[in-house]
Amino acid sequence: MKLVKTLLWIVAAIALLGGGYYIITKNKAKQDEEVAIVASKIEEITVNTAKLEYKDLSADFSVNGNFEPIQEMTFPSEMSGRIVRVLVDEGDYVRVGQTLATIKKDAIEIDMSQAQNNLQNAIIDNQRYENAYKTGGVTKQQVDHSRLQLKNARAAVEAQGVRVRDTNVKATIAGIVNKRYIEPGSVVNPGAQMFDIVNVSRLKLKVSVNESEIVNLRIGQNVKVTASVLPDDEFVGKITFIAPKADASLSFPVEIEVSNNNKLKAGMYGTAVFSTSEDPTVTKALPVIPAKAFVNGVSSNTVFVVENGVSKLTKVVSGRVVGDYVEILSGLKQSAEVVTAGQINLTDGEKVKVVK
Description:
Keywords: Coiled coil, Membrane, Transmembrane, Transmembrane helix. By secondary structure, this protein is α+β, with helices and mostly antiparallel strands. Among the domains are: 46-56 and 284-354, Beta Barrel (conserved putative lor/sdh protein from methanococcus maripaludis s2 fold), CATH 2.40.420; 61-69 and 201-274, Elongation Factor Tu (Ef-tu), domain 3; 105-166, Helix hairpin bin (Helix Hairpins, Orthogonal Bundle), CATH 1.10.287. Helices cover 29% and strands 41% of the residues. The strands form five sheets. The chain has a six-stranded antiparallel β-barrel with strand order 3-10-13-12-11-14. Strands 2-15-19-18 form a four-stranded antiparallel sheet. A hairpin with an 8-residue loop joins strand 12 (230-242) and strand 13. Helix 2 packs antiparallel against helix 3.
């Protein structure tokens, strides 16, 4: 009887263990299935896309840059001394040759007087030697020496004259005093900054043009120019410089000279509108993609292309930027599908889910 009860307990225990194992196994299978579903969803990154398309765009293109003075100069002191007078202030217009400041010249004038006295003595001595040489009283060597002394004395006077003139600091360009570094009583040394003068009667708009557009530009070509702070004003500029060599970004620096109507200021933000056609209404269909498709900006020339549900990091060659679109010169097949949103989570070769 005792043996029968023991057997019954063993059978019951086995049944309980079997039932528990079945339940655990079933739950694990369900959990594995749910994890697989979630994993498959995570593996597919949701993105927005757009296809390469052809758009009729104006032949004109625009480039941004900054206005700079046509001339700009910092005036350094050419000698040591104390400033006696400052004759101009910041904002004053100055002409070429106008005296801006004077440096104390008492000691220099004394040196000048001494040099002039030495010159008079040299003239008298030379005249005496010249007369004596005619009668045979002195040798040719003595006459040559007196002539050399006279020449050196004249050079010394000229040198002192330069020093005297340098005490009057004069403008070498016309323009406006943008910055004054000195005051009466200031002590300056050679090379010390005294004034900054800028000529803004004309301005230079400096821009960079990519290689696909630079071939259409020429020196002397007229360009429409606008300023961001003057939306109602339009200026006409002329191309004065095209760099013969591209910079590190494969763009070519271009300078456009613009006449100033006293509204423009150096340092303002400007836009040059270039026309590559005699008829500004001419348009042509260009292959383009949205600018937002580029990874880390248009300059990266990198986009994600979706092929068979997989992202593919692709290098392209971009052209002009027109509004929200960028011309594609090469690198994409016709009707290629590029990612326009969701790139931040993408790497090359990932599965994607396109949401229109």
